[in-house]
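ok trying again, last paste got cut off:
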Amino acid sequence: MAIISHKLKIILIDHMLIYFLLAVYIIFLLLCVIFSVSILIGLIMTGGVPFVSTPRYDLEKICEAAELKPGEKIFDLGCGKANLLTVAAKKFGAAGTGYELSLWPYFWGKLRVKLLRADVKLKMQDFLKADLSQADVIFCYLFPEVMDKLENKFQKELRPGARVVSYTFKLPNIQPAKTVLGREKKNWFDRCLRTKGIIYVYQF
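nice, full thing came through this time. structure:
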């Protein structure tokens, strides 16, 4: 009887392990599906513009290039996971507002902001329809076709003295007040896979 009982325990443990691994596998598949669907929805909502994070190693330099001051309002158009806004809030004392349409970066950003207790508000809203008139600084890391649409909006809405900081891509018809090179890419990964870190600063 003892031998049978021991064998039953082994069989039970084996079955529990199989069910556990199966549950983990199913959860992993569900997360992959949710992630893929959120990316697809984000691409549809943004008109095909993919989510690409601003390199972390240039976040502080971007804020410095903008001459960001404590108490100023910085808007990030396509803020992703709110990386830049949390740096601007925690290290430079600014108040951040971010616009993001892709689902998973938006919710990830909301969680980061809450955990860091940063003075940042995130909105799931099309920044092309947002009121930008209260911004002191606007940051964007957007493709040229989007920058083209934003140029007129900036000229109509931004108040005198507002600055626009663009990473990598320029406004098509306005000359930047200054251009700052991002951090030197020292390792193979950064040199091969990261975008060219040029920071364009515009004064309105």
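cool. Helices lie at 2-45, 59-65, 83-92, 103-116, 144-157, 188-193. Strands lie at 73-77, 95-99, 120-123, 137-140, 163-167, 178-181, 198-203.
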